[in-house]
């Protein structure tokens, strides 16, 4: 199977999206952007670039054309040399979370949709604690709910209400939703996609729309244990939860082996497609402890630190 985190059976199925003890641990983390972009107005996050904010960073030699206002005249008086003061620029980091709420996410035990909502809540809270600008976008065949420009931890109750009230229904069309999102969200930043990617329209075009905006993209594929290791036997009628397509099959060991091989190939194809385009890819099974996914696995993979 493609890159995946350790599995366990200790994941709670119900309860709040985030408990207070876990939230306290999340406050120590920050979301990492491999492509730090400045927004048009200054923000709270320190940039590695040099700007004109009030926090001093370093000196460099003056060259003709530099702004004379930034010369350190005290040093000039002592050394008779011109040095330019550099300041650490502050910038906003936009963190957008795209969560798949199509009908296929309603499956599994633990439920994929609940797992995705918990993960969205955790990543949103990390962003809010770091004064990032957080955008939440729910989609099925199109964007069905959008909550943007959230900033500061006081917005967390609004995040929880938004996620808890999301209905899980409809067909998935990631390409259409990603196109709508790319047209709506013009600012560059980190984009986190939470989905099972069980989408008959594919994932390639959707990622292309986001890559066209030069966004720093992370795709997290969420599957249930029942999808990875189905416990089925005999003659069955399978019904597609999204479009109602019916297939009658006789489950045998060779058929199950073929299914597992196809699923592994599908996940590997997504991983390879993402790797070739600089998209971070993570594979999660809903039985793995949710806290470990955030605090250990994603930390090790560089999405948070």
What does this structure look like?
By secondary structure, the protein is an alpha/beta fold. It folds into two domains: 20-37 and 92-300, Rossmann fold (3-Layer(aba) Sandwich), CATH 3.40.50; 45-91, no CATH class. 32% of the residues lie in helices and 26% in strands. It contains nine helices and ten strands. It has helices spanning 20-26, 73-79, 112-129, 156-164, 174-184, 204-211, 225-228, 253-276, 290-300, and strands spanning 45-61, 83-91, 94-100, 133-139, 143-150, 190-195, 216-223, 234-239, 246-251, 280-285. The chain has a six-stranded mixed β-sheet, sandwiched between helices. A two-stranded antiparallel sheet has the order 1-2. A hairpin with a 6-residue loop joins strand 8 (234-239) and strand 9. Helix 3 packs antiparallel against helix 4 (156-164) and helix 5 packs parallel to helix 6.
Secondary-structure blueprint:
Elements: H1 20-26, E1 45-61, H2 73-79, E2 83-91, E3 94-100, H3 112-129, E4 133-139, E5 143-150, H4 156-164, H5 174-184, E6 190-195, H6 204-211, E7 216-223, H7 225-228, E8 234-239, E9 246-251, H8 253-276, E10 280-285, H9 290-300
Parallel strand pairs: 3-4, 3-6, 6-7, 7-10
Antiparallel strand pairs: 1-2, 4-5, 8-9
Helix pairs in contact: 3-4, 5-6
